[in-house]
Amino acid sequence: MPEQPIGALPTGTGALALETWNLTKRFGSFTAMDRVSMRVEPGSVHALLGENGAGKSTLVKCVAGFQRAEEGAILLDGREQAIANPIVARGLGIGMVYQHFTLAPGMTVAENLLLAGGQTPALIDWRAKRAELQAFLATTPFQLDLDARPSELAAGEKQKLELLKQLYLRPRLLILDEPTSVLTPQEADEVLGHVRAFARSGQCSVVIITHKFREVMAYADAVTVLRRGQAVHHGRVADTGPQALAQAMMGDSVAPPGAPTQRRDAPVPGAASAATEPVPPGEVALQVEGLQALGDRGTLAVHGLALSVRKGEVLGVAGVSGNGQRELVEALVGQRPRLAGRVRVLGRDYTATRAQNRELKVRSLPEEPLRNACVGDLSVAENMALRDFDQPPLSRGGVLRFSAWRSRAREWIAGYGVKTQGEGAPIRSLSGGNVQRAVLARELAGEINVLIAANPVFGLDFAAVAEIHSRILGVRERGGAVLLISEDLDELLELADRIVVMSEGRIVHETPAATAERHVLGAYMGGGHDHTPYQEAA
After folding, report:
1. Using the 8-state DSSP alphabet, how is residue 7 labeled?
2. According to CATH, what is the number of the domain 18-250?
């Protein structure tokens, strides 16, 4: 640990009490946080709720020293503290796990854990350090390969490493920003159970930003709701419920979180078709046979995988992060070579070329869209045109019609509620939810035969989740086939017609979603099977 700044509280003396008083933060003329006061009791888990842009991240970044508020105060154990930067925060015993990864991709898991401490000796006794790190990992609910690099890890494994970095430092106040967005329900329960036990032992206080009301009700002691930069609700979790919290977040009457996001017989807002009745499952639209693909470390990640999705059907793929889902998606959409196997769309061989995507009407919603589906420095309009910039009406006689790009982008921005300074703004300047909306507008335009969606609502608030879910169901209702890969079991149970479980690169179980049992799915997801590959019925 770095030396503590003058006046800092000593670390390692137990959970901190945190209090913010009238914290205000402005960015130019925009007030992101307006006189927010909040108290976190020592040894408690305090949930922070609010829509995207409500001020949650701004609040915790001020506490963690990444931003400075213009007005107000931060008190730790009753003493006002000037937290000038993250080093000061760390000296005070404050640790934070961010929603976006802060790992060194070229370094190993072990090296990332050691770097978290802020001071690394010139010479490291790796035998002793590895033994120390292995002993530490043994006290946590999950394991990681110390020699793996973040670039080789799935999103869920990266999130675990971010949390492990902070737990390794034994903080007195731990801030978690969407810590379970890429974890399965079982993993989330393990992680949050561990964090809650850590807090209740008196070693740490916890502030958790989450959009999952189930996690608030199950693991938090108290909750604060922010709306448009202001704190609009404080209270004990035992005295409230999802409906009241949702109303506080939205400012009006909304459906309780956890209720179906969209009836399958209801029209989808903005959908190209006004069909109100789902199309019965028809011919096989996507057929995968014997697919094999290597992982980043050169070992087999997808083992002879077979599945099929019919028109008018959503097939959900469940699984613990790191069991080949990422490699499966990348092999299907052309971002990873296929070692063996065959993929067909409507009976035709499919190799994911741009021409085939256009001809066979195959679309994809990848995980981490800013990295996998966009060019960050290009404008919103240019990103929206990536799929068909050289086709009429965006191009005529080989000449690109930029005015048509901008005009269509403005229509899609309005239709999908994309919050941006304009179609000319760089897409990297948008929030995560708005990047996803922009990608949705592009990928869901026109007729679709096959949609491949991977964790499509990662890190989004429940209002955005409801909208995106409704649009995915709209594809199904208009006769498209949807392959939905998700690490959120609730999402799959809500949207899918069938669910298959993927474990160690294989499909090991299948069930109709309507009769699926959580504990059975969880057992297969956790490896509770004999590793016999699932054989698809003829």
Report:
1. T
2. 3.40.50.300
- How does pLDDT run across 15-24, given as a tens digit for each residue? 999 999 999 9
Tokens of 247: 């109303």
Helix (H) or strand (E) holding 432: helix 432-443
> Can you tell me the distance from the alpha carbon of 429 to that of 379, in angstroms, rounded to the nearest whole number?
9
Q: How many CB atoms lie within 10 A of CB 355?
A: 8
Query: In the block, which residue shows the tokens 């916890």?
Result: 206
For residues 453 and 483, the answer to whether their CB atoms sit within 8 Å is: yes
Residue 5 in tokens: 């700044």
> pLDDT tens for residues 463-522?
778 888 998 999 999 999 999 998 778 889 999 999 999 988 999 999 999 999 877 887
Specify the CATH number for 260-361+446-538; select among 3.40.50.300, 1.20.272.10, 1.10.3720.10, 3.40.50.620: 3.40.50.300
The H-assigned helical ranges of 96-184 are: 109-115, 126-137, 155-168
Three-class DSSP labels, 397-418: CCEECHHHHHHHHHHHHHHHCC
Q: DSSP per residue over 284-335, as a string?
A: EEEEEEEEEEE-TTSSEEEEEEEEEEETTEEEEEE--TTSSHHHHHHHHHTS
DSSP bridge pairs for 399: 396
